[in-house]
Specification:
mainly alpha; 11 helices
């Protein structure tokens, strides 16, 4: 069973599509990490759908949106909460800070445990939701998890797969030549859209608990796949 997630299924073909292997064959420069980051991008869409649609118009992954919402709230828009936006940004920063505690370690070795920690945090948000907690505690826990995710993705430095932000990605699609980079950018945008669609459908029609359960399941699978991938298929450390 060891190494099964890296050898079978869609991980290696998807990673090879995004980052083709060199002339000598084998895996691409980042191993199966690109495929796993695509999974995290989907999770980002799901979680932001929960926070925006179910927790009072606040983001837990898209901090650009929160900064703008904070400005709108301070300007007097009563449909937005300045407190929720501030808490989300603060929790996101705290999660990102926790993600750099092991700065001397190899990012690939940190990936699986940090994604597992994120799964625990999203699971905590699910438990809070099931227990009838108010929106603010759930926002804090989810933003902590997304900050953690962004910290490890930043350390991995896999091009065009930031997992949460697509403004620069869309700019690159419009302003730069279309090549393999454009394919990665298209996949990133499309997967974030699909994650938001799935999270939105679940939240609006079945409740945010179902969307959070989907996010937890995906995060656990991503962490397991990363942990079981042979070292040669996890990718090389950036930098």
């Amino acid at each position: 069973m060891r190494g099964v997630p890296a050898r079978r299924g869609v991980l290696r073909p998807l990673a090879a599509l995004l980052f083709p292997p060199g002339p000598q064959g084998g895996s691409g420069p980042h191993g199966v990490l690109p495929a796993l980051l695509v999974g995290l991008t989907f999770v980002s869409g799901v979680v932001d759908a929960v926070s925006f649609l179910g927790l009072g118009h606040v983001f837990v992954a898209n901090m650009t949106g929160n900064v703008v919402f904070l400005g709108f709230a301070l300007a007097g828009d009563r449909s937005l909460s300045a407190a929720a936006s501030l808490l989300a940004v603060a929790a996101f920063l705290a999660g990102a800070s926790a993600g750099r505690l092991r700065r001397g370690g190899e990012p690939q070795r940190m990936f699986a445990p940090l994604v597992a920690a994120q799964a625990v945090l999203v699971g905590g948000a699910l438990a809070l939701t099931a227990g009838g907690a108010g929106p603010l505690p759930v926002v804090v826990v989810l933003a902590l998890g997304m900050g953690l995710q962004n910290a490890v993705v930043l350390r991995l430095a896999v091009p065009d797969l930031t997992t949460t932000v697509v403004t620069r990605t869309l700019t690159g699609l419009a302003a730069e030549p279309w090549d393999r980079t454009a394919l990665r950018r298209l996949v990133s945008v499309a997967v974030l859209l699909c994650g938001a669609l799935a999270g939105g459908l679940l939240t609006l029609h079945h409740g945010s608990g179902w969307a959070l359960a989907l996010a937890v399941a995906l995060l656990l699978w991503i962490a397991l796949a990363a942990a079981l991938a042979p070292p040669g298929h996890r990718g090389r450390a950036a930098g």
